[in-house]
Amino acid sequence: MLVRCCRVKLSVWAALCVLVIGWFYVFPVYRLPSDKEIVEEVLGLGEAWKKNQTGIDLYRNLLTECCNPRWMFAVTKENAPIGKVLWYDGEYYYSHTVNDETYSVFVQEAELGVRRSRGTPDAYLHSVYRLRTTTPLKPLKKCAVVGNGGILRHSKCGRDINQADFIMRCNLPPLTKEYLEDVGNKTHLVTANPSIIEKRFQGLLWSRKAFLDYLKAYGSSFVYMPAFSMKPGTDPSLRAYYTVTDSSSNLTMLFANPDFLRNVGKFWKARGVHAKRLSTGLFLVSLALGMCDEVTVYGFWPFSIALDGQPISHHYYDNILPGKWFHAMPEEFVQLWHLHKSGTLRVKKQMIKKIDLFMHAANYKFVGTSSDAISE
C-alpha cells in the first residue's frame, strides 16, 4: 500500500514538472534588458556598414533549414492539400482541416519574384509581379521591408524605398500623397491583419467598396493575411479573399502558412526574442532574409522620442499603441541591429547616423513598442 501511494505521488509530481517545464517554454521568465543595456549594446557595435555575403548566405541557409520561406511562407495547393490539418500558430488548441472550400482559395504554388520583360536590358524591370510559372524565378535582388514607425515621418526615405526591386509593407499602411516623400508609393507585398479588416472595414459584412478603394494604393501586389493564426481571423480573411477575387482588382491574395509563422517564431526565440508573438515586421524580415540577395529595413524604431528629442508618434500616420506585452520590440530591434552591424541586412544609412547621435544623448525614454512593423 505504501509503495502504491509513493508511486501515485511520484506520478503526480512528474506530471506537475512536465506541466511547469511546458509553461516556461511557452511563457519563459526572463529579464528585459534595461534602456541603458540596450543602448550600450548598440553603441558597442560600431557605426560602419559593409555587406557581408557570408553572413547573408548563412542566414539564408539557416532560415531555409528551419522554415523554408520560398516554399512554406504561404499556404498553397502543393503544401496544403485537401485533408491536411493546419494548426493555428497563435492558438495552440485550434486547427483547420483543409476542405474543398478552403483548398479552392489557395494558390497553386507561391514563389515571389520579379519577372523581366523579354528582349529588354536586365536592369529594366517588368511591371508585373506574379506567381511562378514554368520559368524559375531568379532570387530577389534588393528587397525593402518597410515598417510603420514614426521615425519615417520627415525621413525622406521614399525615393530610396521605391528603388528597391521588391518592397514589403506592413498592415495596410496609408500611401497617400502626404507620405510619399517619406515612405514611397510602390508595393509588391503588403500584409493585412484580420483585426484591421474588422475594425477599419466592419469585417466586410456590409459595403465592401471602401475596402477595394483603399487597396488601389497597392497596385498589383500580393496581400498577405494570417488567416490561420487565430481562429477569429479566418472568416474575415476569407471575406477579404472573396471581396478581392470577385472584383476586377489585380491584387493576389496569399494566406500565411501557420507552420512557417510558428517555425519563424521558434527561430527568433532561440536567438533571444521572447514574445507572445513576433511583430509583422520581423516575420517579413525573415521572409526577405530567406529569399533576397540584399535586405534593407525602414521604419523600425523602439523609442518614443524622435531624433531631435521631441516626442515621436507610434506610427508615421497615427499614434495608436498596440496592446502591452504582445511584442518584444526592444529585443527585435537589438537583433536587427546585430544583423546590420554584421553586414547581413541594412538599416538605412541616413537613419543609422541619426540613431548613433540619438543613442549618445541622455535621459531618453525607451518604451519598446514604437517600431512597427508592428502587427496590431
TrEMBL record:
Lineage per the UniProt record: Eukaryota, Metazoa, Chordata, Craniata, Vertebrata
Annotated EC: 2.4.3.8
Subcellular location, principal: Golgi
Its membrane topology: Single-pass type II membrane protein
GO cellular component term, pick one: Golgi membrane
Organism: Gambusia affinis
GO BP term, example: oligosaccharide metabolic process
Compartments in which it is found: Golgi apparatus membrane
Alphabetical list of Pfam families matching this protein: Glyco_transf_29
Name under which the protein is recorded: Alpha-N-acetylneuraminide alpha-2,8-sialyltransferase
UniProt record similarity statement: Belongs to the glycosyltransferase 29 family.
Broadest EC class assigned to this enzyme: transferase
Highest taxon above the source species: Eukaryota
